[in-house]
Amino acid sequence: MSDPVLIAARDLLPPPRGSDGFATEEFLAELASGQQEIDEEAAARIERLCKKVEVPKRLLTGYSDDLNTSISDDPVDPAYAKYFMLMLFALAEQNEDLKYLNCALKLLDGVLILPVFEVDESSRRLGDSVAARMLREPV
After folding, report:
1. Which of 21, 19, 24, 23 is nearest to 87 (CA)?
2. DSSP secondary-structure letter at 84?
3. The model's pTM
4. Domain assignment present for 44
5. What's the rounded Cα separation, in Å, for the pair 53 and 17?
6. Which of 32, 64, 101, 124 has a 20 to 30 A CA-CA distance from 133?
7. Which structural domain, as residue segments, surrounds residue 48?
8. Cα–Cα distances in Å, from 62 out to 3, 18, 39, 58, 135?
9. Count of the separate structural domains present in the chain
10. What region, left, alpha or beta, does residue 121 occupy, with left being phi > 0 and alpha being psi -120 to 50 degrees?
């Protein structure tokens, strides 16, 4: 994923915080650095993280290994939430996957209770552009 907006967001990620189970920031940092390939297991984890956005509306630092239960009350750093949103836009377009687009648009619209993060104009333009291309609408 080489979109300049995504690369800029990656470069702003702070060092990831770990967790006893699934560490959200570590997982996203590994994806950002290319250490973690998006294989079936990673794609399943991304989809489970999308459910965390859509239902409890929180992205936390730690979950059980299956991502069913939160084991931390600490939200991820806002930079990781923003990176996740931008990564989802890239994956949505790359895979022509409306599930990723839907989750990214929810993040863009500020659905998260925790963490709260600012969406800058370049991220908004990227999201609008990806959505328009995928939905075959003029921008």
Report:
1. 24
2. H
3. 0.93
4. yes
5. 19
6. 32
7. 4-133
8. 28, 8, 21, 11, 34
9. 1
10. alpha
Residue 101 lies in a domain: yes
Dihedral pair phi/psi, residue 123, rounded to 5°: -65, -40
The token duo for 25 is 């920031």
pLDDT along the chain (139 residues), means of 10: 80 94 97 89 96 96 96 96 96 94 96 92 91 78
Q: Is residue 83 within 8 Å of residue 28, measured between CB atoms?
A: yes
* Helix/strand/coil for 62: strand
Tokens 């659905």, residue located: 111
Helix residue spans in 1-139 (DSSP H): 4-11, 24-33, 40-54, 78-95, 98-108, 121-135
Residue 22 lies in a domain: yes
Lookup: tokens for 2 = 């080489």
Give a yes or no: residue 16 inside a domain: yes
